[in-house]
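To make this tangible, this section ends with a sequence with its structure tokens:
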Amino acid sequence: MRRYVILSFMVMMALSLFTGCGNNNDSSGNSAPEKATFTVGFDKEFPPMGFVAEDGSYTGFDLDLAKEVATRLGLELKLQPIDWNAKNMELDSGNIDCVWNGFTINGREREYEWTKPYMNNNQIVVVLADSNVTKLSDLAGKIVGVQDDSSALTAIDGNAEFKNSLKSLVKTPTNLNALMELESGAVDAVVMDEIVARYTIEKKGANYKVLDESIGAEEFGVGFKLGNKELRDKVEAALIEMAKDGKLAEISDSWFGKDITTIGK
């Protein structure tokens, strides 16, 4: 009897071990390895490059590019809205992998690891449609609005004659805030990215006009923390690949009605 009990116990233990091993194998077989994340920092009030859609989702030309790049690199994309003034802190802390949102290279060449430029842009002046301002010199003694810590502000600072001619310069958190100041009459003009200005005017039918003279020309790129050349190179290679197979032109056409990209050309 004792031998029977011992034998039965041994059989039960063996079955238990076998069943346990089987469960472990099934579990490991069903769990796919987690994808590495690719976190993109962007200004959520910078249409058409990155902004909040009517349904509350994040959308934009740059974000569509980032989605395609992440897919090609096998990475899980995470879109992270940031305070534009805190972009360097976000990069340095590792909260984001890059800044990708109409990010101007010019004047910042040594501050980030940049991809090759993927599109051109200008800093232009927007006034109300009924304004008597038609050229830059007409802004002498006027109040001009501009987004703080932006390439538009850099362009103004780099044009001493223009800046010194102004009555004052009003800095706002976003371009949209600057345009609101223009509509309220608090400022006489706004200096901002041409891409954003023309998109806003076209989509919203805004009562604005753009001066023929620009403050300065520039190029957009994707900016990474200094030293992160490996990820920069992968993203750049994906963008060039997209240019060659037509995907870049397809995304550009969906937002601007034509291909305005420059990388890989």
